[in-house]
Design goal:
The protein is α+β, with helices and mostly antiparallel strands. Helix content is 51%, strand content 13%. The chain has ten helices and four strands. It has helices at residues 24-30, 32-46, 50-53, 82-95, 103-111, 117-142, 144-149, 154-163, 174-188, 191-196, and strands at residues 2-6, 12-22, 60-62, 71-79. The protein has a four-stranded antiparallel β-sheet with strand order 1-2-4-3. Helix 6 (117-142) packs antiparallel against helix 8 (154-163). The chain is elongated. 29% of the residues are buried.
Amino acid sequence: MITSVTLHDGTAAVVHAGCLGWGPLNIEQLGLPALYRIVLDELNEDSTCTAVREHDGGVLVESLPQGEPGVLAYALALCAAPECRAFAESYEQEIGGRHPGMGFERAWASKQTAGDQDDRDMVQEYRSAGTQDVNLHWLAQVDPDAARIFRPGCFTDSLLNLAHQVPDHSEFDLGKALELYAAAKRDEGRMDRFGALFAGTPDYQWDAFLPAGGKTEAAR
């Protein structure tokens, strides 16, 4: 998928996008890392330009339309290559205008050049924390350890407390919770579930948390 966009400084650019939504059944059976991998593969299949090749591997997530339970995942890359812009404009001439279903992608692109680099880095951190909280929500549906050790929204809450230097008096320690969960999954031979907490963030390495003995959410 591709759409043209004009940035704040007047630069003519495009957004390359992969997007897919899953409901609860697919998420619980296959796990969110599989969804993220599919949209990243779709992004890479869409273009061979530098912006796509250098994509950091992160995704954006939001709820499905009309508030249905599930996750809509986006893999997005902003590109100013003339050949990509020419392709997007040619495609949009064929369909009679910019793709009406890609308003989210264009809004995302307009924010990538707003503010200074520190502001954009902080936005990325919040997006990653939000993705981790979504991962945790669905992981807790199939893993009692995740539900027991963590609390809902803890990744975003911890980042907010750190950013605003607000002490957390709830006696919840995210670092300790991660250590406890990692130990529990190591003993269980399910480090893929620990890795699933970080899936869809730029720091996640897709081959770092291999399932033990071929165990995956699809085969549990």
